[in-house]
Every structure is written in structure tokens, then in C-alpha cells.
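Please review this one:
***
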Amino acid sequence: MVLAPYTEHDVTARGLNFHYQEWGDPLATPVLMLHGFGVSGHMFDEFAQRMRKDYHLIALDQRGHGDSQWAEDGDYSRDAFVADAEAVRQALGLERFILVGHSMGGLNAVSYTVQHPQRVRALVLVDVGPESAREGVDNIVRFTRGPDDLEFDQFVEMAHRFNQRRSIENIRERMRHRLKPTENGKFTWKFDSRFRKQDNGLKIGSELSNDETWQLFRQVSVPTLLIRGAESDVLTKDVAERAEREMQHARLVVVPDAGHSVPGDNPDDFTAGVRTFLGDLNNGAFEPAAAAEPPPLSELVHEQEAARRRGIGLGGLIAAGIGAALAVAGVSFALKRRSNAKKRAEQASLASRAASVRQNLPQVHVDAADLEAARHRAAEVVAELSTVGRSGLARARQVVGDADLTRARSAAGDVVHLLGEGTRQAPGAARTAANRVDRKKLRRRGGTALTVGKKVGGAAARAALSRGRKRAKRRGFPWR
């Protein structure tokens, strides 16, 4: 296969020599690309060829890969990769750029974006999410830890068996960049040979837990395109869709006829997805896809409990308390859908709800600056509902029409007041009230959303109010 011309360069950063490929006009919008494990920047060749007329593309060989230097100290941690990317950015004089990351490079790209959001205009994550399917990861490990001293054509045949979506000619070109000759006239992998050993003593990846990795993805604040290969055995459909829902500004594109190596498996559709995303971004028309449904209540409670164990501030507790109270009401509101044009016309926008929540938060004995920050965060939680799209907006308006908002705000206020007075039992009370909701039983009873909301929300509010008064009285706090 014949590829359009590109140039090869080297740059020294953090004491290591880094190799990279460069495409397009240096005056155009820069795009920095980070490859996955065991490959090199050349995995983006087909994509860069198609984009080079409009963008300045730089494909970096990350440490220990391609033609970049191996890390003598064995540090292949995510922090090291992120620090490398920042050092290379400085060396190349890139001020703000589009960041593309595949697999391992995608995880590095997420961490980089969270640490340096001012440098990243937009993020493209290729077949990577907060979780990876064990089967797909094991397949990659078995392939890269297989025979590593073969004739070139033997490597080509082995790679073609591993990925039969590509032609022999395509794989031959790819392997030319992944292999290097040995002293005996055969070939071996270019990436650090210690990766292929069981007890290699290397520092690899990140020590973040599964929950912490999800939280890291949620912290990404820039527009993000998630790309999944339709036949991927690494990024599952469920994980990709959940990541799209829970990230702040994300859009998911599924590329057909592609596995984990999306840019090479189907470069035309991959490029089309990226080009559309960047075109919408440039035109100010980018909108993240709307979440079909909010996260399950049990998931919200689990995350709140995990956050409590890690130790969060007052603002986070208040926001979580309000979120839990609204979630309890939301479960009942969603059980029965009604259409009432008069009620819909009388309701304020979701932005007005946010402002109302902020204005009516009760007074608590905390520092004024902390309280104001907490109020703003609580308002933002409600305001974020406006991103759910048309279907979500209709659902939200219906909820407003059926709800007894005064009672819901009162219940949320009680939770806030309990937290502010130092009561430790309020989160437990909210979870207890939430757990009392049995969707199937409510459906069988045929209760309306308003009736159910009053029963559950009212009972929770009265119980929380009573406990708060008693505890405040025992501890000498004024109740108001």
C-alpha cells in the first residue's frame, strides 16, 4: 500500500529520546495522537493520511515503544506517560491541540486532559473506557508474549491470524513499523522486551481502583468523542454507553467492521466519525448525546457511600443529599406518564428550578464561603438535567408537572439542615427512604406519581425532621 508523505523526527524530553511522525501543515490545527500498547504512532497512518490536508498531525511513539527510547528505570506508569506528553508538548511548542488516544494511549490521554484541561481543545478516545473486557486484554497479552524471534513473514502470518479484518498487504506494512531485525537475521518486536516477561519488575499503568477510574473519566471537562469498534472484544457496548452518559460532554460513535484497532480496521468510517465531530466542534454545533435514563438509584447510593469513606467536603455532602432526595422522588415520578398541556405551560424551565433550589436552601451554621459554594454546586446538579436532550427534557417537564415541589424541596432542605448541624444519620436516613421504594409494588398498586411521591417523600421528610429536632435539642443546637 502507498501512503502519502510524512516526516520522521526526534525530540529529547525528560532525559529520553522520543520519535514521532508528522503530517500536514504546521500552521493548521494541531492533533497529537497517542497509540496503544505494543504498537507505535504508525497505527494512525491511514487516519493521518486522510486528515493531513486540514490538520497538523503528530503521532508520538511513547516511551518504550516504536523508535522511542526505553525507560531504563522501568517506569511505565501512567504518570510517567502523562509527564512525557506534557514535556513533548512544551518541546514542540504546542499551545492547545486536539488529543487522540487509543487503548493505553487513551487512558494516558484522559489523565493528561484532567491534569491539563487548558491545553486540550477536544478529546478523541478510541476503543477505551474506564473498564476493559478481560477476554480482549488477555488476547492482546497472549499475542504480544508469543514467539518474538521469527522471520518477517512468520510475524505477518501470525498477525493476520490475530486480526483477519485486514489484508496481508496492510498487515505487512503495519509490521514493518512494529518489528526490528536481530543479530541472527530474524526479527523481533520493537517495544521494550521486558513487557513480555512475567516478573519484569516494571512499574506499569495506574493504581486507581475501578471506581476511581470512572471518576477520572467524569472529570474530563472538554468535548469528547468516544469511538468503539463494533466488533471490539476490549471495550464492551455497556461500558461505552455508560461512559457516554456519565462523562460531561461526550458523544459515542460505533464504527462497523472494526475490532479493537479501529483506525486501521476501518479507516474510512473512523475518519468520517472524527471529521464530523471536529466539524461540529468548529461550527459550534457539538452537542453530547442525551442520556436515555439517569443512573440507577442503587448506583447513586453506592457512589455516595464510597465518597463518604474517602472523605468529602460539606459542598459534596449537600449536593449528594439533594441528589438522593430528588432521586427518591424521581423513581415514583417515572412510574406513570401523563400528558397535560396546561401544567406543562405553567412550569418554569429547568434553569429556573436550579435557581429556585439555590435561593431556598436553608441556613446552616457553616462558613459563608463554603455555604455559597455548596449552594451553587447543588444548583448545578439540577441544572445539569438540561443536558438530557429532547426526550429527557420532556420527561423532566412531566416530572415537574406531577411533583409536589414544595414537599420535595422541604425534604431536601431537611437533609441539608441535618448535615449542617453535624448529624451523621442523615445520609443513612436518605438511603433508608430510598430503599423503601419498590417499583413493582408501586406499579401493582396503580398509585399515581403524585400520591407515591407524597407518601415516600413526606414520610422521609417527617422522619428526618423529627430526628433532627431531637438531636439538635440534645446537643444544644438551635433549630430553625
Observations:
- The chain has 20 helices and twelve strands.
- Residues 297-475 form one domain.
- The two ends are 77 Å apart (CA to CA).
- The first strand starts at residue 7 and ends at 13.
